[in-house]
Design goal:
The structure is a single chain. This protein is an all-alpha fold. The protein has helices at residues 4-25, 36-45, 47-50, 64-73, 88-101. The longest helix has 22 residues, at 4-25. The chain is elongated and about 75 Å long.
Length: 102
């Protein structure tokens, strides 16, 4: 007959392993401008003026914070403001994406 003590340890160990594996494999849902969505956001809002490779009217040498601010506040006379349509994190993601495709 098997004593209860070893079975309790085994069950507890298996439960802990399953919980740990679940935590490792679960990822939070991406926000609108993360991952594949950032490319879709770029294509929907930026591509027509900045081009497929962000080669038009985009100075990648500028500070990321200044570029994200430009996304949110707009640049007169042509670029609209996206404050209220995009979050600050989404603007930062767009800037990073634009720098990555150059």
């Amino acid at each position: 007959m098997i004593s209860i003590h070893p079975l309790k340890k085994l069950t507890t160990g298996l439960f802990a392993f399953a919980a740990f594996a679940f935590l490792l494999t679960s990822t939070p849902a991406p926000t609108r401008a993360e991952g594949d969505d950032v490319a879709a956001t770029y294509k929907a809002k930026c591509w027509m003026c900045h081009g497929a490779k962000a080669e038009k009217s985009f100075d990648a040498a500028k500070d990321d914070a200044a570029l994200a601010d430009a996304v949110l506040k707009g640049v007169k006379p042509k670029m609209p403001a996206y404050d209220g349509k995009l979050t600050a994190d989404q603007a930062k993601s767009l800037v990073a994406y634009m720098k990555s495709i150059r």
